[in-house]
Amino acid sequence: MTENILHPWKQETIIRHTQRLLLSYKYWTGKSLLDTDGTPELIAQALWEAPFIVFSHGMESDPIYNYGNRKALDLWEVDWEQLTQMPSRYSAEPMEQEERVRVLNEVTSNGYISNVGGVRVSRSGKRIRVSNFTIWNLLDENQQKCGQAATFNEWEYIQ
Questions:
Q1: CATH architecture of 3-158
Q2: Domain-by-domain residue ranges, the chain?
Q3: pLDDT under 70 in the chain at which residues?
């Protein structure tokens, strides 16, 4: 495996994306997603190794994941390459798709939403009940929307 797959947080684009994730979260919620100092690379590593889930997708018509930290990859049962080629809708069960779209539209309009829950599915089909999602719009360096991100730290596998 290449270094980019094993340690994606070392890529310049991911270091920059990490900054967008953290700054956008702070902008919308007024809170820090990650309390750490250091160089942008050390901060990117800290988010990669965080004990909670963080992932994001871009703005394609069928958005593709463009980031997931180690916990997210483990939960979805994918590696970096698989995640970054996967439409984000695949993480929600078919019966949850309509609600997922509604929530993402609300985030688009309002900037962020908290305390969202639902059932998601891993790549192998394991069902996961997620609680206390926070979803927010990602902003680039010019304050233009460039995607959406989510975080949570409560989940359980269900039958």
A1: 2-Layer Sandwich (3.30)
A2: 3-158
A3: 1-5
